[in-house]
């Protein structure tokens, strides 16, 4: 369904990336000083070398940014802690010196298992400052996924809370020979004599500990993927990625020094690190961090109280806000907001347009993956938005749609709006350097000089990319190829539908039929009448070939902890098949 184009704003010329075509044609190199005029510069360390922490913090010490508010942390109970760039620089030096004292040498793997606490952010950057490798784990993981990730990553140090340690780590700690030390951020050592205490170590630590002179290709971050399609993979990123983190945030999130920025993602997922820690600090903005989980009223209150100007969030949260309705939204003054963006899942056209109704600005969808390390395709502040499209590749990023033939050959599809695999030409600095211990799987991601994303998409005549679905989720019904996103978006246009997850269900005649799982907005009853109405609505909008043949209601859809609908689980349950790796599953109430 064509949703009208949202024309670029009147002040488009003021955007960081004001002229997309020109910037694309003039672009030469991500790591050169003139990668973007007026854009962030890459600063090498005084003795040479490149370090993400230096770029994010130390680099600002000789400028007025040093005493600016870098992070405002808001606790679950609304306690506020403020950190300037200088504060963070000293605290991260302290943490780096602790690692040094504990004999954790360059490249040692440091894991965190923490909620969004200040210690997590200090440890992430302090680890990089020490030249070690950081892996943030989502604190809601159970013991098994924690252990398996720490095992794969050969964790040498874990930073966590006393209660998480006791509940989720202590019982198996001895079985992980690589693990040299555990630091607890709370409690006392009489309780846990085999651990170190954050406050004691930090007090004795060196606030001037220098930044390690890491090289661009040194490993910096090990991130685990969301596990939407199968077992999570350990993705390797290097220090040079910072060149792309900062430039892509400058372009795609339009961050300016005067902004108050809120990235709602947890650092347990790549968004929460690339754009929830590194990029905003490199760009010298003020960011807020909320310790609490999603809550409609709380989020609106924080946006208002903190005068957030740039907000980067995810489709699931946006759909929840839509579900809660405009009456709640209208109780808050959100006039400070000037740019809003979304990532992680397809953003239904309905949600983009809702942004305009609710905030007088549309949501800007962008696409990337743990593997790409940074935003690849984006709707930009200075460009028209086609609701439902992920936007266009950032300057310097070459994308293509690749068609795979049955005989094993493949070629680039140039005709507009043809479905194929979304591929990228490798070479940008944040590109992953491998899946840890999975060399074969890594090699399989590349063919004929392209990185194959595993996602299906189409490209239109203006170069805008349209998400179709994951390769694994594509439905083949009576000779038609159907992407779940199109069907889900159509269902979402009905006033009763809050969320939809669509799968292909095997069928002896059609091969597969489209089946939809739907959650409803408050005030709608999941009965047969509504079911029939929705089936008719979908047929009218999508045509009989594409519309679902079956619709069932659910109270919730199974999602990953990063908020992605797990269609593979809907399918496995439908077919009575093994459910596979559920380590990242969040809500499971059916
Ligand atoms: P796994 O690889 O373990 O199955 P995952 O792919 O969900 O998990 P991530 O790297 O966190 O792990 O997510 C990247 C994926 O999220 C993309 O490949 C794509 O399928 C989806 N995605 C991200 N942004 C968008 C977007 N704007 N529109 C559509 N899909 C998106
Ligand atoms: Mg993936």
Q: Roughly how many Å is the radius of gyration?
A: 24 Å
Structural class: alpha/beta
Strand content: 15-25%
- CATH topological fold name of the largest domain: Rossmann fold
Number of strands: 28
CATH superfamily of the largest domain: ANL, N-terminal domain
* Helix percentage: 25-40%
Please give the CATH class of the largest domain. Alpha Beta
| Total number of distinct structural domains | 2
Mean pLDDT: 94
Structure ligands: adenosine-5'-triphosphate, magnesium ion
Calculate the terminal CA-CA distance, rounded to whole Å. 30 Å
Which blocks of ≥5 consecutive residues have pLDDT under 50? none
Task: Please outline the major beta sheet.
Answer: 9 strands, mixed
Task: Return the CATH architecture of the largest domain.
Answer: 3-Layer(aba) Sandwich
Q: What is the topology, as strand order, of the major beta sheet?
A: 2-1-11-10-12-13-14-15-16
| Morphology | globular
What does this structure look like?
This protein is of the alpha/beta class and 590 residues long. The chain is 28% helix and 23% strand. The protein has 17 helices and 28 strands. A nine-stranded mixed β-sheet has the order 2-1-11-10-12-13-14-15-16. The longest helix has 17 residues. The model has no long low-confidence stretch (mean pLDDT 94). The structure holds adenosine-5'-triphosphate (ATP) and magnesium ion (MG).
């Amino acid at each position: 369904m064509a949703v009208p184009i949202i024309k670029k704003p009147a002040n488009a010329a003021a955007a960081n990336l004001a002229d997309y075509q020109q910037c694309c044609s003039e672009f030469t190199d991500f790591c050169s000083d003139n990668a973007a005029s007026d854009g962030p510069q890459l600063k090498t360390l005084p003795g040479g070398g490149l370090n993400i922490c230096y770029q994010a913090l130390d680099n600002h010490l000789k400028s007025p940014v040093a005493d600016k508010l870098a992070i405002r942390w808001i606790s679950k109970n609304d306690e506020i802690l403020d950190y300037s760039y200088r504060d963070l620089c000293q605290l991260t030096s302290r943490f780096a010196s602790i690692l040094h004292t504990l004999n954790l040498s360059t490249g040692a793997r440091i894991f965190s298992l923490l909620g969004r606490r200040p210690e997590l952010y200090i440890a992430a950057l302090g680890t990089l400052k020490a030249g070690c490798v950081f892996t943030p784990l989502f604190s809601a993981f159970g013991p098994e996924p924690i252990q398996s990730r720490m095992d794969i990553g050969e964790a040498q140090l874990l930073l966590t809370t006393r209660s998480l340690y006791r509940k989720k780590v202590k019982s198996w700690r001895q079985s992980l020979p690589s693990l040299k030390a555990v630091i607890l951020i709370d409690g006392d050592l009489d309780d846990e004599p085999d651990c170190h205490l954050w406050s004691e170590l930090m007090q004795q630590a060196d606030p001037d500990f220098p930044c390690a002179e890491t090289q661009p290709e040194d490993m910096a971050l090990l991130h685990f993927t969301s596990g939407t399609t199968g077992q999570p993979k350990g993705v390797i990123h290097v220090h040079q990625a910072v060149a792309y983190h900062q430039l892509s945030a400058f372009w795609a999130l339009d961050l300016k020094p005067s902004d108050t920025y809120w990235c709602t993602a947890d650092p347990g997922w790549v968004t929460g690190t690339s754009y929830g820690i590194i990029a905003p600090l490199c760009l010298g903005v003020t960011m807020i961090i909320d310790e609490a989980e999603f809550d409609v009223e709380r989020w609106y209150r924080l946006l208002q109280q903190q005068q957030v100007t740039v907000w980067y969030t995810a489709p699931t949260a946006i759909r929840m806000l839509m579900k809660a309705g405009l009456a709640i939204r209208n109780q808050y003054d959100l006039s400070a907001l000037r740019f809003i963006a979304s990532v992680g899942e397809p953003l239904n056209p309905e949600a983009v347009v809702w942004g305009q109704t609710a905030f007088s600005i549309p949501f800007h969808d962008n696409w990337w993956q743990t593997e790409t390390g940074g935003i690849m395709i984006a709707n930009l502040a200075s460009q028209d938005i086609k609701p439902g499209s992920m936007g266009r590749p950032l300057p310097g990023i070459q994308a293509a749609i690749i068609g795979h033939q049955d005989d094993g050959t493949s070629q680039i599809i140039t005709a507009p709006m043809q479905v194929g695999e979304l591929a990228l030409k490798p070479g940008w600095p944040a590109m992953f350097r491998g899946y840890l211990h999975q060399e074969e799987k890594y090699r399989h991601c590349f063919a004929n000089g392209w990185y194959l994303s595993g996602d299906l998409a189409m490209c239109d005549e203006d170069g805008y990319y349209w998400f179709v679905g994951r390769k694994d989720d594509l439905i083949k019904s009576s000779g038609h190829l159907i992407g779940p996103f199109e069907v889900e978006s159509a269902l979402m246009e009905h006033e009763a539908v809050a969320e939809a997850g669509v799968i292909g269900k095997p069928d002896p005649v059609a091969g597969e039929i489209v089946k939809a799982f739907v959650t409803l907005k408050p005030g709608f009853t999941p009965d047969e009448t509504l079911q029939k109405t929705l089936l008719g609505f979908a047929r009218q909008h999508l045509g009989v070939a594409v519309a679902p043949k079956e619709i069932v209601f659910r109270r919730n859809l199974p999602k990953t902890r990063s908020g992605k609908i797990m269609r593979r689980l809907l399918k496995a349950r439908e077919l009575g098949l093994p459910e596979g790796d559920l380590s990242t599953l969040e809500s499971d109430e059916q």
